[in-house]
Amino acid sequence: MLETYLTVVMAITPLVMILVRLPYKINNLKKKIVMSDYPIYETILRNLAMITVLFPLVDTFTDFTKRFQLSIPMAVRLFCSFTLLMGLYVYSVSHFTLKDLWSPTVEIKKDHHLITNGIYQYIRHPMYLAGFLISISYFFVSQNYFSSFFINTFWFTLYFCRIEREEKLMRKVFGSQYIEYQKKTSRLFTFRNFLPFLKSVTFISLSKNPKKSN
Ligand SMILES: C[S@@+](CC[C@H](N)C(=O)[O-])C[C@H]1O[C@@H](n2cnc3c(N)ncnc32)[C@H](O)[C@@H]1O
Fold this sequence. Notes:
Keywords: Endoplasmic reticulum, Membrane, Methyltransferase, S-adenosyl-L-methionine, Transferase, Transmembrane, Transmembrane helix. This is Protein-S-isoprenylcysteine O-methyltransferase. It catalyses: [protein]-C-terminal S-[(2E,6E)-farnesyl]-L-cysteine + S-adenosyl-L-methionine = [protein]-C-terminal S-[(2E,6E)-farnesyl]-L-cysteine methyl ester + S-adenosyl-L-homocysteine. It is found in: Endoplasmic reticulum membrane; Membrane. By secondary structure, the protein is mainly alpha-helical. It has one domain: Four Helix Bundle (Hemerythrin (Met), subunit A) (Up-down Bundle), CATH 1.20.120.1630. The protein contains eight helices and two strands, in the order αβαααβαααα. It has helices at about 1-30, 40-50, 55-60, 75-100, 125-140, 145-175, 175-185, 195-200, and strands at about 35, 105-110. A two-stranded antiparallel ribbon has the order 1-2. About 30% of the residues are buried. The model is unreliable at about 205-214 (pLDDT under 50). The protein binds S-adenosylmethionine. S-adenosylmethionine binds next to α4, β2 and α5. S-adenosylmethionine binds near residues 102, 103, 126 and 166.
């Protein structure tokens, strides 16, 4: 019974990730990019990371990776299934908040404005936080060190290479507005504003993305 629940969590992970992202991915193709910063190594890394999104399906529905299993206590696996679902939720909320300003790489679109509401009023990179939560939790839920090694290596490297460049580009485009925003927010996680942060995730405060920055 518990094993079935964990298998379902593993199987829905890539499906939720793909389905949530799909409309934004399509929308992104229509938008005019005015500035970008993505070196070739990031394109390679991103494509490799994208392939690993499918690994949970391989782990769940085939025997290819079965021999790389550890034995992790059920209580730990159950707890991590909760953090994995939280990760999927934060991933969805950050997409819903960023809307058509989402892009797969570090780039600025025509009429880009700074989002500072909802979950973005507490942390600057909720989508990357979600990625970390999902990848780490997946290791414990699946117990599969082979898939988890590739998932974690590619996603962690991608995010760590990207965050600084993304913030640099945002400072270049939004100037003092982004510097002020940085002062008020944490990069990936907030202990100081943990409760309001949780509230913003729980109640999806998607209320009116300001068209112009405040
Ligand atoms: C994959 S999204 C990730 C957004 C953010 N780093 C996160 O983790 O939630 C990357 C794009 O989002 C855009 N972006 C990031 N933060 C933003 C903000 N606060 N307001 C508007 N656009 C933002 C940037 O143009 C960047 O190219």
